[in-house]
């Protein structure tokens, strides 16, 4: 049977959550009322039994805490559902248990309903579906949320500044939707998402400048050893790249490609000593490549192509190891690995240590 109302799905999960709060016996097996609600949920979903590895095995005779995709606490209360890649179709409502993974299904409709103030959600993954509408503002009630992945849907609206109070948020993925507008979050002066380590806004219609405070305030990107990434590509951002991007000491991936960014590449990028991938291509960046960029010895991916950069590529232990495709499309740019400039007198070349060196003809009288 197919879901006929997203609100119905929502009510099942909300009921599960309420029961989690009012029933607290010490119990190692699934509570019967929780099992009943999960079976109602299963019966209300349309899925392909032949390709299902989880829902198809949910039966009345088994302990629901042993069902694949279900997580229980030591009281027998359901605290997590992982139904990714179950070929579920129809609509969905939001949930307020601790973990919900509905990635890669065929869910349609809006994310409806209201997250209660007692929301215990920590992970919500609704990515790779066909969901529409706005991000519900009641999601701000889930103060313990750490992972929010709404990527690859048809969700629209503006940047969810109303989630700024989610101080534990570590991962925010909104890529490949229909969001628009700026990401400045005006009027919010507190430390927005201090623990945020991964943000992916790629493939939307965001516009305006990249606000300096947006990078400065995310202290979770300034220390630690876990790989961290910023993806802002394929939007309509304009203006300069803020110097504050250099404060994100642990950043591993920075992708600002396919926007309308102008100005020069900030020298502070050289402070990102753990950076492994940098893509600033297909913008309107001008000026020379900063010498500090040659300090980045961990770069495995570099793309500065199709901007308006000029001058000689700085020499260092890393930059000359990339193919010329990393630099093509900049008419005023030259030096290895590009074809050498054909001027009779070549200018001096900036190097990583800040000194000036001559070209390959050094020492020839």
TrEMBL record:
Residues 1-28 form the signal peptide. It is found in: Membrane. It is a single-pass type I membrane protein. GO terms for cellular component: membrane. It comes from the Eukaryota. Keywords: Glycoprotein, Leucine-rich repeat, Membrane, Repeat, Signal, Transmembrane, Transmembrane helix. Pfam families: LRR_1, LRR_8, LRRNT_2. Residues 32-73 form the Leucine-rich repeat-containing N-terminal plant-type domain. Residues 348-357 have a biased composition (Polar residues). The keyword Repeat applies. Residues 345-365 are annotated as: Disordered. Belongs to the RLP family. PANTHER family: LEUCINE-RICH REPEAT RECEPTOR PROTEIN KINASE EMS1-LIKE-RELATED, RECEPTOR LIKE PROTEIN 30-LIKE. This is Leucine-rich repeat-containing N-terminal plant-type domain-containing protein. It comes from Rhododendron griersonianum. The lineage of its organism: Eukaryota, Viridiplantae, Streptophyta, Embryophyta, Tracheophyta.
